[in-house]
Write the structure tokens for this entry.
Amino acid sequence: MRSCEIIEKFELLSEIRKREILESKDNLHIIGNTYYVSCDGNDNNDGLTPHTAWATLDKVSSIKLNKGDGVLFRRGDVFRGCIRTQSSVTYGAYGEGEKPKLYGWDKNLANPAMWEAVDEDKHVYKLTEKILDVGTLVFNDGEKHSIKLIPSYKNGKFVCRENESKPFVFANEAKRNLDFYWHFDEVMTVEPSRGENFPIPSVTDNSLGDLYLRCDEGNPGKIFTSIEALTHRPMFAVGANNDVRIDNLCIKYVGTHAISAGGECVKGLRVTNCEIGWVGGCIQHYFGTDPNYPQGGRGTVTRFGNGVEIYGGCENYAVGSCYIHDVYDAGVTHQITTNGKQYKLSDISYVNNLIERCVYSIEYFLDMTEGDVKSVMQNVKICGNILKLCGYGWGQQRHNVDTPAHIKGWEYVNRTKGFSICDNILDRSAYRMIHIVADEENSLPKMCSNTYIQHKGKMFGTYGATTNCSKNTIMYDENVSNYLKNTLKSENDTVYIV
């Protein structure tokens, strides 16, 4: 089969999967009260019927809900802000048409009155309103996006990361159309400085700063019909709440995590039939400990943002039949650095999703530190997913270009029992297809019946245990089938070279 035929075949499969997800029907069973939210509702209503619906996400976050209740958003409407979930509550859709759209920032920025020229010669515009840190700007529903310029902060001033003796001036550093910069230094902190006790800007979901954009065609509010900002807040802040279900929603333009959970053991988080896109890219902190940044030290800036994340222990965690795309870090993930505590991450399933243009399609890790020897991941199933084009999306404006992988396990202890990766399609990666390492051979996931599509001469990836030094870097060439059989002990795989 020729390369173009291979690509066309799997593009068709992806499009069929996407349409199935985007057109999925509502099929929720809510045992408690059902509350409705619509754009023409009113927060003073009781919310108990479509005709007495609430209007805002703030109302959904602030009202006390009971176990078994459900909150349904009207299809075709757009809601803005974020939601703080409550335990044992379902969040879904009602009505006809497209999935309800939940967007992160308070408004569309495509309004000429919201932009003023501050350097006409260099085409620099400033947003007239303060805004939270922005991961990227997305124009006309994904037609274009921005590249974020981030200086280092050293000795009380912003400096260029490539030349820290040079003060950072956005107008001089913005070399491309639609480059942007977010400026904030009103509140300082020393906490991330790891004992060095020097001040850096405090970037939180309360930090409102100035946004600058280079737009060569003129006032961006005139040029574009939509400008969506991925701002420093999650859409669903699940926290440690148990038995939260999120179904049939479109969650987009979020600068941290679209759905964020974490704690000692988050139970019963289920995310199904959702579209999750354009997520992440905000600054986590100016002094990072990111080991992938070659220089390290004071000038490091760490950015973050996953589609669906649990950080900590978890049980009965499922992400299924979702279309997840254009995420700065991982489409879906479970992860924890234990710091001496014991965690169990059990009964996890990522099934029948379409994930594309994320730096990591699916990420996991169990970093067992400070004497922890008992934590474990068990009964993990990654099955039936279509994973496409990792590292080809906007997230690759990051500094560490050698990290993308469809399955990203890093090189931690990753102690597991009953971990399987089967019946998936892994379609092209800008770097690795897989990065799967564990301390022990018996902690490596069982892999079988997967389909791999990759460019000849690129890397298939890394798979092996650290204890016997068998971490294998496998290249993608005519011998890859034999490598998979001998190294992964994988059966019934299909390999396409393009």
